[in-house]
Design brief:
Layout: E1 9-18, E2 24-29, E3 40-41, E4 43-46, H1 53-65, E5 71-82, E6 91-101, E7 112-118, H2 120-126, H3 130-150
Length: about 150
């Protein structure tokens, strides 16, 4: 690829699991958004300069869901993502975390217009974005590993 190097971003996302139900949260992007309107998404966003990944994670969860009571379990995936065409200005390195909360009621930001708590296998069939599907699959594997160790 002979493209000039540009600036790229770090995205932070999470598979947010409800500890009471075992379901994970999906958010539907609002129709007014320029990038990927109306697709199902996880919680996340771009890391700001001088923020740590964990600070970004807590900020994004609170901004997009209103949830403040969250436990970070562990990072589950690091991937390369293009927000649009495969061009230098669209490249993002994304760190996805597994997080847990007991909260079920969500207060959506204007970035999203709907939310659903879903069983992970159901969520896999519900989402169209391959990047998110990969993160959900990683979550399922990690959850299984943790449960196996605890037994």
């Amino acid at each position: 690829m002979n493209q000039p190097e540009g600036r790229f971003y770090i995205g932070i996302g999470c598979i947010l699991e409800n500890t009471k139900t075992g379901k994970i949260l999906l958010l539907r992007r609002s129709s007014h958004l320029e990038f990927a309107p109306q697709i199902w998404d996880d919680v996340g966003g771009r890391m700001r300069q001088f923020e740590t990944p964990e600070k970004t994670l807590y900020r994004e969860i609170q901004e997009e869901t209103g949830i403040k009571d969250v436990e970070v379990i562990k990072p589950i995936n690091v991937s390369n993502y293009y927000r649009g065409d495969e061009a230098a200005e669209n490249q993002m390195v994304v760190i996805t975390y597994w997080c847990q909360t007991s909260i079920t009621k969500i207060k959506l930001s204007d970035e999203h217009d709907q939310y659903e708590w879903m069983v992970p296998d159901e969520a896999l069939n519900h989402v169209s974005d391959q990047h998110l599907k990969n993160d959900i699959k990683r979550f399922i594997v990690e959850k299984y590993l943790v449960q196996s160790i605890q037994q």
